[in-house]
Amino acid sequence: MDVKVRKVQLIVDQVDSLPTLPVVATRVLALATSDQTSVRDLSDIIESDPSLTSRILALVNSASFGGVRAQVSTVSRACSLLGFEAIRNSVLSLKVFDLFSRKGHNAYRTSFDRRAFWKHSLAVAAASQLIARTVRGVNPDEAFVAGLLHDIGKVALDFVLPKTFDQVVRRVKSHCTTFADAENRILGVDHTVIGKRLTENWDFPEKLINVIWLHHQEAAHLPGNLQGRELVRVVGLADLLAREQRIGMGSPMSSAEAAATLADQLGIAPSHLETIGKKLHAAVAEHVRIMGLENSDEQTLFYESVQNANAELGVVNDRLMAATRHLHRQKRHADLLLRMGRSLAEARSMRHLLDDLCRTMAEWVQTEVCAVYVLGDGRGFIEGTLRTPQGRPAEHFVFENDVGEALPLRPMSSPHEHFGLARAERDEAWLFERFGTVMGEGPFFTLPIFAHDERLGAFVFSWPDPKTPPRDQDCRDLEILAGAAGLNISLLYQREQTVRMLESLAEASRQASEAREELLRKRNLASVGAMAAGAAHEINNPLAVISGRAQILAETEDDPKKRRALDIIAEQAQRASDIISDLMSFARPPSAKRRPTDLAVVVRKVVATQADRLADKNVAVEALGCDEPLVVDIDGEQLSWAIEELVTNAAYACQAGGRITVALEPDRDNDRLGLAVTDTGEGMDHETLSKACNPFFSGRSAGRGRGLGLPKVQRIAEAHGASLRLDSATGQGTSVRLLFDWPAGGAETPSAATSEAY
Fold first, then answer.
1. What local confidence, expressed as pLDDT, does residue 459 receive?
2. Where are the alpha helices (DSSP H) in 366-471?
3. Which three-class secondary structure state does DSSP give residue 393?
4. 735 neighbors 663 (Cβ within 8 angstroms)
């Protein structure tokens, strides 16, 4: 059985154990329904109870039963005037009131005001009686009793569960809600069900049981064949009217539209309903006096109604003000969340986002001290922003995560475990160790930031009101902020990751493009090499014949002009042969004979030779970084030729004079050694620079160069496992840099390296 169902059953069982009606009430109920009963029988039973006798006489002599001209002094006369129905209803009402009066009962003092409750019940009874006089098929006396007992379940609950029902009464007053709503929330069952069960045990008529059970139901929902259907509707309308007049203790103000609709269904004009309302206070005052509740006149009851209305309006006003404050707070929070979303779109880095999150939290909580941090990749570092009292700029910090797993995945010291809010002084001790002197006294709370079940970081903030800790609503609001912050941080991470991925893809694309170009270049070189090999064999022999014949003819020729022509033929044939040799040397360079060599010595010797050669051309050549031994595995002869070729090209670029430097650039951290030949010449434009390493391309005038010097230098660099980088711009000179592997621990002294001249 469900726990809630079992709890309700236990409550019903306690109601079932309540005392039954007194014997007098039971006998009167039996006599009134018997055809053999006489007035004398009924009066004898009533006269056996002095208290009941006095109340019946007071009832018949009251203003409620007009038409009696002389005072009635005997019970038999009262029974004749009132009739069996009125007697039965009066006896039932009085005895039920006595049953739950708690006289002699060890009562728990609750917030349930019994006298105010009975006043409300009398108001409903009186209104039911007045309404029933205009509704066909409804007995006014029966309506009076039905109205009087309609909320009997409330006093039953107060009788058997005083402490729990006290919570119900307090909730009704503080939340301005109905008894039925509060009872179902706290007890799981309301007073209508309890009243039905109680009156079933008392063998009440079915129509009266239905009134007690269904008087809060909408008329449209009542079954058409329900016994006492019209009586249920009459009492329901009377209850709405009594609540509207604020008589006694009932549920809070009802809807005027609901009363008007029900009155229209019963055929009661609005003016007549208003008349009934005006008579109600006087009728209730008379019945209060008859039942002996207190001496209350109409004016006193009206004053109490006004007080009840004011108290209810005060509660409603407080709740409206609280709702207004809540709406203002929600609007402010919504504005902050919107601003946070915009800041994400504008955030250029995690620092900018953290600054905005910290500012948002400070405004959200309305505090001066606030910090927010995130855990870096792999929790290896902590990055955050701290705001302290006004006048201090926000401080951005990055720490290595030396606390490691000491940062809890979710704080466990929280009084609000569901929301993850916890006191920060313990869970974020690392933060206070670093900034405690500027953060103030607190109290401080920490709120973890999660995204996809992964902790990204946390907020740490001081609570502005030390005497009032965060409420559940505050925690729920903060949870919304933490969720939005987690989403923003996660989105920024994804955006940064996407940018890094795009950059990586761009770099990979660039490398792939360079690799394709390099592959194409090598294929072209291979083609050139194959062509050169075939052409050298086929062309060199005819060139040798041409050159030899021309030389022989020149020796026997006496005519100077013809001899000069034959010499030119021989020279050009030799030149063509030299071109073929250069092409073969480029296409199939000799393998490098690498051995440890002091590159500084090689550079100094080449620079000395070239400086002498270029001295008369106003071009200075200088060696830099060659003061200490720099040993690397190279072919000294090939590198000497390569340096000479680079200096020659640089000298051509400095035709108007200039400076050439040959510099060695050791990079011991990366085990690399650079050799850079830089000139201050005219430089190259973009198109010339892009073709500078192509075979047979020369930036010189036609016939001034074969365009194989720089490509051959590149081939030599490749043979040494080195890379070549060319930087140049028009009017800014040119720099050619070779980068060699320089293994750590290699020989670095002349004694361990070759230092001979080349």
1. 92
2. 424-427, 429-439
3. coil
4. no
